[in-house]
Amino acid sequence: MTEATAVTGRILVVDDDMTVRDVVRRYLELAGHEVRLAGDGEEALRLVGQQQPDLVVLDLMLPGIDGLEVCRRLRRQSAVPVVMLTALGEEEDRIAGLQLGADDYVTKPFSPRELALRVSSVLRRSRAERPEPRERELLDGGLRVDVPARSATLGGAELSLTTREFDLLVFLMSNPGRAFTRAELLERVWGWDFGDQSTVTVHVRRLREKIEDDPARPTRIATVWGVGYRYDGGQ
Fold first, then answer.
1. Which residue ranges does the record assign to the Response regulatory domain (predicted)?
2. Percent of the chain with pLDDT over 90
3. What's the pTM?
C-alpha cells in the first residue's frame, strides 16, 4: 500500500505508555487523522461512549481493564475497527484478540509509519462498498445466509458472527468448490495487500466452530493442504 491510498478518520489510541501514545499520535496526525488518547481501558470505553471513533488502536497490556476486555466490550456495542498493539511474544493474546473481532495487529516494537499505513488500510476496507454476490440468499442445508440483512442462521437458530466472519462465510459460500490461498482470502475478504496470514486461520477456525457439526472434521469449509481453504458444503 502506498501513501496515496491513505484514508483518514477519527482515531482513538489506547496505551498506558505516554511515549508510545505521543509517537503514535504524531504519526497519525501527520497522516491526516484526528486523534484522541486514552491511558487505560476505563478511559477508552468512556471516550468511545462520548464520541464513536472510526478506529481504535488498542494496546492489550493495560492497567485495570485490559485490552482484551476492552475489545470484548466494544464488540458488544459496536463494529468499530480495532488494530491491536501486542508484544512480540504474546501470540495467545494476539489470537484471542482476533477471535474477539479485532481487525489487525502490530507487534511491539513497531514502526509508527507501518502502523499508520495499517490504520489507513483497515479504515479503507471498513468504508469500502463490498461487492454483493449475485445471490441475496445463500443456502447450504440448514445453513441460511441473508446477504443484504447480514444475518445467518443454522437450523433456524441465529448465528453470532463478527463482521469478518460473516464476510468470509459469504465469500466462501459464493465460490463453492474453489480453493483459495490464505493470501488470496486476505486480499479478497480483508482488503489487505500485506498482513499475517494466521488471521485467516483463526477466522476459519472460529467459523468452523459455529457452522460445522464437528469442527475437528469439517464438511463445509475444507482445508486444501499446501494451498488454503475451499467451501464444499455440508454433507
1. 10-123
2. 46
3. 0.64
